[in-house]
């Protein structure tokens, strides 16, 4: 074993060179393993990384050292790393802070907005990217040269350039896949986290699917022209294999949404049947039937970004009464102020959501919570579990009222998309109509 002696403050320190080398090798292995699924390309002057924001110093140091060993220092072009972020979930952006100074971060518009707002990244260090656009970069110095509308037949690229195109990933608002193309490294598809459904429903039965705003041009993945153009032509695939374990049978998003909507419908119907029985018994005894109300509050546990489509699906199935004659055509979903701001930054269905007060003390009117939330009378959709696994409206064959006598029974729905700890009992009690002031029927809450 080689021992290296060093002097520090007059004291001679003996250090094992072998141990130092071992620690250095271990660190290099950690960085190499981390980058293995994130490094799209690494050349003499440019590297392309996706969702790789940890070990940045070590990686860039390694790149420069490797290049210095093979190049003349005076001829060197500054080494540049291009950072791409697929979506704003912590396991992907981990390593980004407000003091980020390693280079521009390229992301979808929604994700870029969140980066600047949530993490305080300066606008100058973020590049907002759109769908259906081919961005062409230099492989010599990493500069973004120009942007063109994506066209399959027109794609041409010399050895000195590469292009990148964004594809909707279907994972969460703002999530994308990256398609990289260059004669140097071929065609590379990095999926990030994505959801791909194999089913191809009849086009005449396609439901009204909650879509991203117009600037993101979300397209059905099966018909996405960019994906279709590279079928059988991908040289390297970075694949999200979260659900690739054959031991499990994971439901599709459509199946999950159907279960949620069916659970809510079941709560309404179960209590409707009970109340109808009570009403019939009172009528038989000669008592005047009174109007009853069933109020259901749905709490959807959520991440900072995620689960929004569940709320939109519920809104599309349980339409408010008189929606045709009103400016309010959906039951609003209540969210925390921070969640509402994130939806505003993402430009995702902001008009479908309403922010709760920041603190309970902000509620006016002598502590009444009725000013915080408003319950909405809704129509119940038909129950057709035998239908195909469509999303939203086609989960049920019709949005006509349920064919049962519910003349004396009103159905009210309130939706919350916030961490459960943020919703206080008084707010839920008001939403469920359980207070003595409104004569409502207390309905056991079912977690869906």
Could you characterize what this model shows?
With 448 residues, the protein is α/β, with parallel strands linked by helices. The chain folds into three domains: 1-36; 38-238, Metallo-beta-lactamase, Chain A; 253-432, no CATH class. 25% of the residues lie in helices and 21% in strands. The chain has nine helices and 18 strands. It has helices spanning 17-36, 56-70, 90-93, 109-118, 225-229, 253-284, 308-317, 337-346, 425-432; strands at residues 3-8, 11-16, 39-42, 46-50, 80-84, 105-108, 126-129, 133-138, 144-149, 161-168, 176-182, 186-190, 236-238, 292-299, 333-335, 353-355, 376-377, 409-416. The chain has a six-stranded mixed beta sheet, with no helix packed on it. Strands 3-4-5-6-7 form a five-stranded mixed beta sheet. Strand 10 and strand 11 form a beta hairpin. Residues 1-21, 199-219, 361-370, 384-406 and 435-448 have low confidence and may be disordered. Keywords: Exonuclease, Hydrolase, Nuclease. It comes from Trypanosoma cruzi. One of its GO terms (molecular function) is damaged DNA binding.
Rg over C-alpha atoms, rounded to the nearest angstrom: 28 Å
Helicity, in percent? 25-40%
**Helix/strand class:** alpha/beta
Overall shape: it is: elongated
Measured by DSSP, the beta-strand proportion falls in: 15-25%
Mean pLDDT: 76
Uncertain runs: 1-21, 199-219, 361-370, 384-406, 435-448
Tell me the series of helices and strands, N- to C-terminal: EEHEEHEHEHEEEEEEHEHEHEHEEEH
CATH fold field value of the largest domain: Metallo-beta-lactamase, Chain A
CATH architecture of the largest domain: 4-Layer Sandwich
Largest sheet: 6 strands, mixed
> Kindly, what is the distance between the CA atoms of the first and last residues, rounded to a whole number of angstroms?
63 Å
**So what's the CATH class of the largest domain?**
Alpha Beta
Number of domains: 3
Contiguous helical run count: 9
User: Care to count the β-strands?
Assistant: 18
Assembly state (oligomeric): single chain
Record the strand order, biggest sheet.
9-8-10-11-12-13
